[in-house]
């Protein structure tokens, strides 16, 4: 298995600019002022390889590395719950 590409941010969003679901996840994180890093897998071969390794040959996007937990196309409710439970958004 390919290791998660290392970044300095604890939430990484792996997706493509043309993916509506990726855009939705990014808007949700921004709505809750959650710090995250967006990685465009079309322009980052290592990140694309990691997504394929965790999601299979037909990767679904977005893939979120949320403090070491991998999420596949989470909905707003899941993101809210993860932020709240992680302490990122204590006031939620």
Description:
There is one protein chain. The chain has helices at 20-31, 45-55, 76-86, and strands at residues 11-15, 37-40, 63-66, 69-72. It is of the alpha+beta class. It has one domain: Glutaredoxin (3-Layer(aba) Sandwich). Strands 2-1-3-4 form a four-stranded mixed beta sheet, with helices on both faces. A hairpin with a 2-residue loop joins strand 3 (63-66) and strand 4 (69-72). The radius of gyration is 12 Å and the shape is globular.
Percent helix, as a range, is 25-40%
How would a crystallographer describe the biggest sheet?
4 strands, mixed
Q: In percent terms, what proportion of residues is strand?
A: 15-25%
CATH class: Alpha Beta
Work out the number of β strands.
4
- The CATH architecture assignment turns out to be 3-Layer(aba) Sandwich
Neighbour order of strands in the largest sheet: 2-1-3-4
Radius of gyration: 12 Å
Write the layout of secondary structure elements.
Layout: E1 11-15, H1 20-31, E2 37-40, H2 45-55, E3 63-66, E4 69-72, H3 76-86
Parallel strand pairs: 1-2
Antiparallel strand pairs: 1-3, 3-4
Brief digest:
This protein has 92 residues and is an alpha+beta fold. The chain has helices spanning 20-31, 45-55, 76-86, and strands at residues 11-15, 37-40, 63-66, 69-72. It is globular and about 35 Å long.
List keywords for this structure.
four-stranded mixed β-sheet, alpha+beta, 4 strands
């Amino acid at each position: 298995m390919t290791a998660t590409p290392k970044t300095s941010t604890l939430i990484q969003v792996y997706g493509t600019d043309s993916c509506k679901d990726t855009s939705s996840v990014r808007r949700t994180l921004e709505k809750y002022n959650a710090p995250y890093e967006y990685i465009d897998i079309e322009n980052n071969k290592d990140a694309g390889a990691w997504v394929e390794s965790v999601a299979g040959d037909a990767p679904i996007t977005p893939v979120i590395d949320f403090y070491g937990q991998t999420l596949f196309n989470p909905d707003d409710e899941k993101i809210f719950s993860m932020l709240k439970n992680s302490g990122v958004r204590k006031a939620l």
